[in-house]
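Quick one:
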Amino acid sequence: FLVVTRNICFKNEKKQERFEEFVSRLEEMKSAIKGKNPYEVFAYFGGAEKCSSIEAERIYKEFVKTNHPDKVPKGTKQEIVNLCNEVFSIVSDAHDLLVNPEKRVELERKIQQADANKQMKAEELISQAVPLMERSKFREAYNLLKQAKEAYPSPMVQLYFFWAKIKADPQ
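Output:
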């Protein structure tokens, strides 16, 4: 009897550990993919930087096998079910955009437009920072260039940023 009871207890403990690992993995996934574009979502799962629709389909099928909301055990807390649904929704939406040719073209256009906007913002900040540097106001220029570097870290932004940083704090 003791052996049977002990065996059941250990099995239940292992199930609980696996479930906790599952929840932890979902939380990690959510924080890693939330707010990312579909390419970044699939890159998280091992896809190429610009994964093809075939690669997205393969990764999605693997994801569904282990992370589908139907895999959550009955009686699980609603917050965990919601977490699973949210992660599944993010990945499903990304999958839909990457495998549908029309939606993929629109996605590419939006990504290029967002990139162009970031570049324009960085260039505007540079155009404000360079005159400050010419007047030896390196600390102010550094702060602007730091924003430019965060917006669009191009080689030119990096060069101005480090130049202002060295001049602002020569140590």
